[in-house]
Write a structure and sequence with these properties.
The protein is mostly helical. It has one domain. It has 5 helices and no strands. It is elongated, with a radius of gyration of 14 Å.
């Protein structure tokens, strides 16, 4: 039973990842993967797309990776 739940959760995570990946442009994907620098403009586009389609995990990953860009995106400081 527990293994079945873990499989469902893994499938959900993968599905969300694919949904977000398919929505991002080549340039945005390159920035996410560190191939090109992540600019504020690219971050804003990536975060916006994550929010639009409910890519919560990918948005959380972006925030962890680029907290300074998130602060500007939201227009406020993150309280740690």
């Amino acid at each position: 039973m527990q293994q079945n739940e873990m499989q469902k959760q893994s499938e959900e995570i993968f599905r969300e990842f694919m949904d977000v990946t398919l929505q991002l442009s080549e340039e945005e994907l390159q920035a996410v993967h560190g191939i090109v620098p992540m600019t504020q403009e690219l971050f804003n586009r990536c975060a916006g797309k994550c929010e639009e389609i409910g890519g919560v995990r990918q948005l959380e990953e972006l925030i962890r990776e680029f907290p300074e860009l998130y602060r500007v995106y939201r227009g406020k400081e993150i309280i740690a």
